[in-house]
Amino acid sequence: MSVNDTFKNENMEGIAVIGMAGRFPGAKSINDFWRNLKDGVESISVLTDEDILNSAIDPAILNNPRHVKAGAVLEDIELFDAAFFGFNPREAAIMDPQHRFFLECSWQALEDAGYDSENFAGEIGIYGGMGWNSYLLFNIASNRNLLSLEIGQQTLLGNEKDFLTTRTSYKLNLKGPSINVQTGCSTSLVSIYLACQSLLSYQCDMALAGGVSINVLQKAGYLHQEVGIMSPDGHCRTFDAKARGTVGGSGVGVVVLKRLEDALSERDCIHAVIIGSAINNDGALKVGYTAPSLVRQAQAIAQALAVADIEAETVNYVECHGSGTVLGDPVEIKALTKAFRTSTQKKNFCAIGSVKTNVGHLDAAAGIAGFIKTVLALKHKLIPPSLHFEEPNPEIDFTNSPFYVNTKLSEWKTNSTPRRAGVSSFGIGGTNAHIILEEAPIGEQGEQGRKYQLLVISAKTESALETATANLVNHLKQHPNLNLADVAYTLKVGRRAMGYRRVVVCQDIDDAMNALQDPKRVLTSIQETSEYAAYTPSPADGLRDRDRPVALMFPGLGTHHINMALEIYQVEPTFQEAVDRCCLLLKPILGLDLRDVLYPKNSSQKQNPSKPGLDLRKMLGRSEEPADEATQKLNQTFFTQPAIFVVEYALAQLWFEWGIRPVAMIGYSIGEFVAATLAGVLSLEDALTLVAKRAQMIQELPAGAMLAVPLTEQEVQPFLSEKLSLSAINGSSLCVISGCTEAVDELEHHLTQKGLACRRIVTSHAFHSKMMEAIAPGLHSLVKTFNLQPPKIPYLSNVTGTWITAEQATDPSYWVKHLCQTVQFASAVQELSKKHNPVLLEVGSGQTLSSLALSILQSDRLVDRVVLPSLRHSYERQSDIAFLLNTLGQLWLAGVQIDWAGFYSHERRDRLPLPTYPFERQRYWIEPHKQTQVVAISQTCSPEHFQGGEAQEYQLPTNSEIVSELSLHSRPHLRNSYVAPSSELEHKIASFYQQSLGIEQVGIYDNFFELGGNSLIGIQVIAQLRKNFQLELSLRALFEAPSVAELGLFIEEMIIAELEELTEDEAQELVSVFTQNQQALITVS
Questions:
Q1: Which domains does the chain have, with CATH numbers?
Q2: Which residue, 474, 513, 697, 867, has fewest beta-carbon neighbours within 10 Å?
Q3: What is the pLDDT of residues 1026-1081, one digit of tens each?
Q4: Could you tell me which residues come within 8 angstroms of residue 96 by beta carbon, excluding any fewer than 6 positions away?
Q5: Is the pTM of this model over 0.85?
Q6: Is 669 a catalytic residue?
Q7: Cβ proximity of 360 and 325 under 8 Å
Q8: Is 321 a catalytic residue?
Q9: Which residues are in the Ketosynthase family 3 (KS3) domain (predicted)?
Q10: Rounded to an integer, what is the distance from CA 531 to the centroid of its chain?
């Protein structure tokens, strides 16, 4: 959190600024902007003749002595990441760059705040405005066919000011108020004011506010007029004696706001706090419509101070409107002085400045530029210099005012009060805005967090994923003192999960940087999505419906070990609470605390060996060390089975907390009791009692042995007898035979002599064999004492190898069969794969079921299977937590939605500003038609700024049939491969798709909507099809048949149906018209 080293806000009042994004002249980011400000950089460019002529300017303008070759240029205004936001190329090219920049900036501001709008629990509002439509005027209007009835509405939606914020709300799924604001130069600061009011009145819980202004003729220069507001020398000299005006510029900025109390409780990164704000209008209290009003400016400032409830002398800095005009500057200082003098007579204590000296006048974005500058100054505790101030304007009496112009980078010192600043913005037409800011309060120190952290990164494309990874590495290098736990948290909760995904588990910042650059440690996956359709908002309640399903597998005996999941027990409260509860319930039955058996303090087995890797002897079952006393005790069935149940049940509770909700479960042997308990067949108390007493019964039986053999069920049959039983079928060629120890020894010797690799299972008895039948009556009686319920979650039966039924689950006889009969694991896995194609997650110690399931699925040639273990093997020397987090990461890679709030439910984590999405911008631009030529430009600010100056003159073409210069873009990445049209009908439909979407190549199986189409564009396509085929097609046809192939078949069927109803002459005439249209299209193409 941005921390004030002196002050703490006690009353929780105010509006917190928690996120920022912007692009300004000379600055592609907020960091660039701050660097330029503190270094005193003027970002107003000196334009070349080539720049000016490339702007479609009449060459004669170069000889005009009043022409000023200067402009505050915003770079790359023609570039946009259309695919990211789901726009097709044609739609993007028609859209005003102000719409595009505002949309990108809004996304970045939310990410900077550490929020994904899809997963925010409250409502997010947005307030903003844009400058005049120069793109529409000079580029679109000169291509008259873009104003036709067919695409005129699309042009309107992409350019009109009215749709700036609502389009952003749609694309970002913002459901709070969406208000377009237009008050001239004060637009963006008024937007902030309105956003604050919306938050304070609980109309929304978070708000975006800002503005954008882009003049497509920003490199054309301007004509200076003596009575105008434009500078004669290309510099803005605010408050200086030489000040004669400003310089127009382009820029965009958006901030994210939240109620301070909410921001503090949710541990947002607070850059500054708005403690007071006010707006008003001059009315008629001035000499003319475009003139400023001293009285009304002063009243707006005084009202903001009153709302903040502070003394004026506690304000250390004011970011002025400061346009550098002869009239405006003195009026502004007099208004400020008048407002301050109501509470203080102190002189020259408050610094002032104007960002216009750096970046010029940004029109609708002017207020947000000054606001962001001031927030940054508060955050860094530095006041940037205001440029070009040498001698004060003689009309300004600084000596007797509270103010002085800050001309150098100054440390922002304060005494008994927090650092405070005012920001002013006054619009042509008289709408005045003033906001009071205060530095951010102290935040509570964050916790250290887990020893290991899971970092997740995602992007829309593979190249963007690589860029995002590199950007994160660079950020960590530049900020080595960040808490890695907060970095990991922000990446999870503050970023949208996209198709290209990457995860890594690491311990600290240095380890994170190394791991992110190590191909051996990072895991990457691709979740296939349509390039254009992927990020069009969907209903929030439908998100989980698109999750990859998960099935849980609970293993049985054989992989248990001392200190099983000990590290997880030590650091994960949910797991610990579940283990503690189970052990407390078991204590009266077992006669001891099972935790003393699971986690004995004097065990010779270390939880985290110093050397990572594998204990090969232990892995092969050839450890020379005899089992210690603790291991021998755990290996007793009376303790083994309850221990396995407890660990698996507790681990399932942890997965549930992390958002894993299974569509199905499989329990192997004792593991089925865990599945039944989670499904609601047994209560936890009854399940623990049943498992413990069942184990006690088994403990009293004669010892036995179990042997895994690489044989099919049929190949095993000759070896079965009264002494040997088929205990489990684990695969097409993998079974388990069990029985008395002598018989199993003989079988193992016999099969080994034949060259078959057999494996003895570490167990005390011959489970699922005839040796269990002796306790069947007692078990039946025991189960009858419990209240069995039908399962609420589907799971597969060990006995049948298919889905458990309510009758089976509630029948005591079933649980007797479960003890004595063969475990049909292979059949169960195959049955599950037919229904769900889930990720299989093993919930227990080791990876036995994972290996078996993979073998089963591979033998059935099933593809795209993900099988994951939760815990390491006992012989693996690594951290349980690191292993578990790696599995969690792989679940996310596979497309499983994780509940990150649940994952962090026991931690207090901070959101951090981290690198935002690396947009992959391409050029989408309509050039002005060559007949259009701007003859003269009086200024580069909006038309509202005219004060008797010359109007902008332009010439429109008279030929309405001019073909627009819209370039076609390459086919986007889709889930299906490209298949070229073959028939003439397919060629015709594909050409309509290409023209309407601006895509160079459309395949016959490409979905219109995945290509970036929408209902509005669909109407245009249907209109063309109706015209060419003389058919009564409706938009519904496109929704039902969105591909070229489907639509072609639909049209063919319509034509055939119509032909059957026509006379022979009518049919011949229709075919003739169809043929002519076809030939005309071929000729054009």
A1: 19-280+289-439 (3.40.47.10), 453-546 (3.30.70.3290), 552-605+641-700+766-878 (3.40.366.10), 702-764 (3.30.70.250), 984-1084 (1.10.1200.10)
A2: 474
A3: 778 777 787 888 888 888 888 878 777 777 776 666 667 766 665 665 555 545 44
A4: 130, 133, 135, 136, 158, 159, 214
A5: yes
A6: yes
A7: no
A8: yes
A9: 12-439
A10: 16
